[in-house]
Specification:
The chain has 298 residues and is mostly helical. Helices cover 80% and strands 0% of the residues. It is built from 13 helices and no strands. Helix 9 packs antiparallel against helix 10. The longest helix is centred in the last third of the chain and has 29 residues.
Length: 298
């Protein structure tokens, strides 16, 4: 095999591996909203968000110490701060506040705009220019999500929708920076350091919540809190950031178009919510768009 052929084969393996890892991350994140709803049965928003991130930070810090991970370089701290703000602070608290009044299904579909936001922000930050075909497919997929959301919500925007919009924009910055940093360090190092960085703030969230919000501890509440702490806030990022590093932020982010549809399924199976009749049609459109973006040159 010639050198060029070997390099092409290695790249193909990396793309398949990266796609599988990113998809695994999406699967892990798709349970986040149902798990958050469970957590809210025992803890109010500030308590749930604070405890979730503090628990994740303790696990992350322990892993960093056990594996003797060196401190990030000075030039990496700024990017880690962006990850910390978007993925550790803003997204958890804003989506948790939204889920107090919004259904899991509605919230999941609004957050379906996250892939497009991530691709746009990533292209601006890195200077990469995905092809027109890529952008067209991404826009169609995002539009399908928007139409689905508007149809199911009656066309109105609520305070919960504003929380969700803010969450997806700030999280998109965190995803884009995290994907970039994952090319320089292990993906789990990125989220681990971001969690540790945010610990003073998330600790304050937990203290504030415990001091001002009532507790109604239930089995579902504890199970939901443990899932969002150990998987949504930490474990899922192992696969997600590694996958983004291997296939690129913009392409990996489009796999997340499938996340709201997966969350709808879990909302039905785990929470007993009604699955709208339009969901299968939206799912087919989204899957088709994912196929196109994965085959489009970036």
């Amino acid at each position: 095999m010639r050198l060029d052929d070997s390099a092409i084969a290695d790249r193909a393996v990396a793309v398949r591996s990266g796609t599988a890892l990113a998809a695994l991350g999406v699967l892990a994140f798709s349970f986040t909203f149902p798990a958050t709803v469970w957590a809210l049965k025992g803890f109010d928003p500030w308590t749930a968000t604070g405890l979730r991130s503090v628990l994740a930070a303790l696990v992350a810090g322990t892993c960093l110490r056990i594996f003797r991970v060196p401190l990030p370089r000075r030039d990496q701290w700024r990017g880690l701060a962006v990850v910390s703000l978007g993925c550790v602070l803003a997204f958890p608290i804003l989506t948790t506040l939204a889920l107090k009044t919004s259904s899991t299904a509605h919230s999941a579909v609004v957050i379906g705009l996250l892939p497009l936001a991530t691709a746009v922000i990533s292209s601006k930050l890195t200077g990469n220019r995905p092809s027109r075909r890529f952008w067209l497919a991404a826009a169609v997929g995002a539009s399908a999500v928007v139409v689905f959301t508007v149809a199911q919500s009656g066309g109105g925007l609520s305070t919960a929708d504003l929380f969700l919009f803010g969450a997806l924009v700030l999280c998109a910055f965190g995803y884009a920076e995290g994907g970039r940093l994952a090319r320089e360090m292990a993906g789990w190092h990125v989220i681990a350091w971001a969690l540790v960085m945010a610990l003073p703030v998330t600790g304050a969230f937990a203290v504030f919540g415990l001091a001002t919000e009532p507790l109604h501890v239930t089995g579902e509440g504890i199970a939901g809190l443990l899932y969002v702490a150990l998987i949504s806030q930490f474990g899922g990022f192992f696969a997600w950031y590694r996958g983004m590093a291997e296939i690129g932020v913009a392409r990996a982010s489009q796999l997340q178009l499938a996340q709201p549809l997966l969350t709808l399924v879990w909302a039905v199976l785990l929470l007993g919510e009604h699955l709208p009749a339009a969901a299968p049609i939206t799912a087919l459109i989204v899957v088709a768009c994912i196929v196109v973006t994965q085959r489009s040159r970036t």
